[in-house]
Amino acid sequence: MMPLMTGTTNTVAVIGAHCDDVIIGAGATLMQIARNNPGVVLHALVLTGAGTEREIEEKNAFAALLPHADIHLTVLNLPDGHLPEHWRHVKNHLAKFRRTCEPDLVLGPQRDDFHQDHRLLAELIPTEFRAHLVLGYEILKWESDLPNPTVYVPIPDEVAQHKTRLLAQSYPSQTDRDWFDDEAFLSLMRIRGVQCRARYAEAFVVEKAVLAPCTDPSLI
After folding, report:
1. 11-34: buried (b, 16+ CB within 10 Å) or exposed (e) per residue?
2. Which domains does the chain have, with CATH numbers?
3. Residue pair 18/82 in contact by the 8 Å Cβ criterion
4. pTM to 2 decimals?
5. pLDDT by residue, tens only, the chain of 220 residues
């Protein structure tokens, strides 16, 4: 495979239906971005969990994941599991979020996720971020809905291990779920690593990308 470089990434927008979605799907990638782009600005929108222990967990997780990033996190209180019933509110919140940032990269759920909340977000994000690189992350869970990824981000061993430790430490409310453990998260990253000839990787589905076959960046 030919590696494609993103160049400098100054601002990233991440969107999740639930607290922990973003870090499960793209936590290691965000750590890699922050390592390679000191001072990166992260705009994060989570649609559910405001006013509960889940919001506290999410804030602590982002702070631990990206201690040197400039994080702007908004957690809303829409009903978990019922976002399609609140389509207009979801759309309005996404539109408002879009006006707060001009990101180099957008991360959100992938379109074929079986969870109705994730799937709705995946459908609406490209309607707001119309001229951006949007990558859909995968969320390991009970449903058999893992995608056939089209983009891979190789992850160093220590970053993969740090992500799994952080998930366990930051989200105690989720540790009773039978799929929420270090072995499961590392296994998926290991499989994605095999698929891109790395030890570990996170994988994404690209919404749309424009390839400029040019060696001189000034001509792009």
Report:
1. bbbbbbbbbbbbbbbbbbbbbbbb
2. 11-154+204-209 (3.40.50.10320)
3. no
4. 0.93
5. 667 777 789 999 999 999 999 999 999 999 999 999 999 999 999 999 999 999 999 999 999 999 999 999 999 999 999 999 999 999 999 999 999 999 999 999 999 999 999 999 999 999 999 999 999 999 999 889 999 999 999 999 999 999 999 999 999 999 999 999 999 999 999 999 999 999 999 999 998 888 777 666 554 4
